[in-house]
Design brief:
heterodimer, A: mainly beta, Dna Ligase, domain 1, OB fold (Dihydrolipoamide Acetyltransferase, E2P), 5-stranded antiparallel sheet, 1 helix, B: mainly alpha, 13 helices, RNA polymerase Rpb4/RPC9 core domain-containing protein (chain B), nucleus (chain B), Rpb4/RPC9 (chain B), RNA_pol_Rpb4/RPC9_core (chain B)
Chain lengths: 176, 225
């Protein structure tokens, strides 16, 4: 889910950026450095929404760079274990399927797909119930529950399940 | 904010720090390789699982708070192959997990419902279009994806009134995170809410009636589409 949060970062700025536009330069650099990154604690930094406060700069010995402590507000996206998400299926194979919720990738193993759904191979691999009423294929929207998360420097990866009450396909592109 | 960060750093044990230092170079390689493979999703998926042990270690640099859940999830991954075990683990998990939303993030963090996020991001995107004349600033992929997702999952047009309706639940001890989940999944019945947010089950007897009223209010606010 999305969060609004205040974060702090020490920004190092080269002296050539000083002058009247120092603040603008600092903010531009902050956006470039921070947006799109992700961490385990905060998740993806989706966008900076405002600057709270820029502290006094401190000259770094020997380099001339000045570091400014910057407090900024931003919107972050972080999945939690136990959270319910709506995700779009991106790929289906016999191991299960991959889905995407915002910047986050989610894998749902075939063990976590209801037992009455069978894998069907072909041009459009899918999971279908025996009576054919429910079908999960690429671009289907599913509601799933996150049961595990893992974060590295550039992305967040989750394991999800649809084997529970009120989970599963919410919108089938084939019938829509 | 700053003291929170400080906590994060002081908590990891010496061992954790050391191991993360050692593993850092190799994990960097691994994540880079993972990126190269991104054209084929299946490969990426496999790679990710394969590397998971090494990869979740460096997180102790960012936050020790995340360390435990990460280790736990690492175990889940290992079990991934044997489905029944995951099934067992899953049954126990959700209840404590749902509660952690508040604990894992700094207090200053405010949960946003998807519809609120969609509003904010939409506003930023309009600014971005102005900024994008400057070629040095490029809009990150995660922003577009985040916006797309928020738009797709926001079921309500007017976030303020949704927030108002749901806020009546806070006096029954429903947390901000739980409120956001309810707003995001847009449930139709109280049974659905209790199934999806198991942490609410403890107060089910008190909560059922007000929740029912809230849900009927929410259906009125739902987008006509």
């Amino acid at each position: 889910m999305f969060f609004h949060i205040v974060l702090e970062r020490n920004m190092q700025l080269h002296p050539r950026h000083f002058g009247r536009n120092l603040r603008e330069n600092l903010v531009a650099k902050l956006m470039k450095d921070v947006e799109g990154t992700c961490s385990g604690q905060h998740g993806f930094v989706v966008a900076i929404t405002g600057i709270e406060n820029i502290g006094k700069g401190l000259i770094r010995d020997g380099t001339g760079f000045v570091s400014f402590p910057v407090k900024y507000q931003c919107v972050v996206f972080r999945p939690f274990k136990g959270e319910i998400l709506e995700a779009v299926v991106t790929m289906v194979n016999k191991m299960g399927f991959f889905a995407e919720a915002g910047p986050v990738q989610i894998f749902v193993s075939n063990h976590l797909i209801p037992d009455d759904m069978e894998f069907q191979s072909g041009d459009m691999p899918n999971y279908t119930t025996s009576d054919g009423s429910v079908k999960i294929q690429k671009d289907s929207e599913v509601r799933l529950k996150i049961i595990g998360t893992r974060v590295d420097a550039t992305e967040i990866f989750c394991i999800g399940t649809i084997k529970d009450d009120f989970l599963g396909v919410i919108n089938d592109p084939a019938t829509a | 904010m700053s003291e929170k960060g400080g906590k994060g750093f002081s908590l990891p044990t010496g061992k954790a720090v050391k191991s993360s230092l050692k593993s850092t170079p190799s994990t960097k390689d691994a994540s880079l390789k993972g990126k190269d493979d991104s054209s084929t999703k299946s490969k990426k998926g496999r790679k990710v699982q394969f590397d998971s042990e090494g990869l979740h270690e460096p997180k102790s640099n960012f936050s020790s708070k995340f360390d435990n859940p990460a280790a736990a999830s690492g175990k889940d991954w290992g079990k991934g192959g044997k489905g029944d075990k995951v099934g067992n683990g899953r049954k126990k998990e959700p209840q404590p997990l749902e509660l952690k939303i508040e604990q894992e993030l700094p207090q200053s963090a405010k949960c946003l419902m998807d519809c609120e996020a969609a509003d904010i991001l939409q506003g930023i995107q309009e600014q971005m279009i102005l900024l994008s004349k400057d070629p040095t600033i490029k809009i990150p992929v995660s922003f577009d994806k985040g916006l797309q997702y928020a738009k797709r999952t926001s079921h309500y047009t007017n976030p303020q009134s949704v927030r108002k309706v749901l806020e009546t639940l806070t006096k029954y001890g429903v947390s901000d995170g739980e409120i956001s989940v309810i707003a995001n999944v847009c449930p139709e019945t109280t049974d659905e809410v209790f199934a999806l947010v198991p942490s609410l089950k403890t107060t089910r007897s008190v909560l059922s009636q007000p929740l029912k009223e809230v849900l009927s209010e929410l259906t009125k606010l739902k987008q006509s589409t």
